[in-house]
Amino acid sequence: MAPARSPEQRSRIRLVLVALVTAAAVALPAFSIGRLSVILASGPSTTSAEAGYARDMQTHHDQGVEMAMIVRDRTDDEAVRLLAYDIATTQAHQSGQLYGWLTQWGLPQAGSEPPMAWMDEGGAHEHDGAAPMPGMATPEELEQLRAAAGVDAERLFLRLMIDHHVGAVEMSEAVLARTDDPTVQSFARAVVASQQSETALMEDMLAERP
Fold it and tell me: Which residues contact 176 (CB under 8 A, 6 or more apart)?
């Protein structure tokens, strides 16, 4: 009979599986951007859902990278540090892709409309306007994370990042309801798949830290 695995070993195995899912999900939109550049030559307008999503998801992903880098300095737990590294590298890469879209479309990186205005204009998943973007951590929560250490930092990070991922999925599903652009669709579906997978992992990791 094989020996029982420790919680740390189980977390590491799940992390490897999530990393494989994330790598596959990210590879498709990266490939699509190159192959579909001719299709996107005209590009969407600056007030379109596609442009709004590209701007707002950059901001959203940049905060995800920030939180991941904070917790890497606040814990020695191998599983949490590996998860944080995966989140930071994946979301930094995707943020760069979104920046590239706007450049390719000939649009400014900053829009004239408030954040999430594109999400309030018809379709599914109306944004309630209570927060700048779904799932974003507040400045106070980020300060709490910087001040925490060890298991306390791990718990807070996992809670904040679960909410953050749920928000990114909401934004991605919203743009899917508003776009026919194949590159945007491919990217948004990849975000939904990878972040739902990571959310399930983080829920398990949080349950291991009652």
Answer: 185, 188, 189, 192
Question: Under 8 Å CB-to-CB from 138, ≥6 apart: which residues?
Answer: none
Q: Are 75 and 153 in contact (CB under 8 A)?
A: yes
Going along the chain from its start, the domains and CATH numbers come out as 31-207 (1.20.1260.10)
Cα–Cα distance, 76 to 85 (Å, whole number): 13
pLDDT exceeds 80 at position 191: yes
- Smallest CA-to-CA distance from 205 within 75, 110, 102 is with 75
Nearest to residue 132, comparing CAs of 199, 64, 57, 70? 57
pLDDT in tens, 141-168: 999 999 999 999 999 999 999 999 999 9
pLDDT at 35: 43
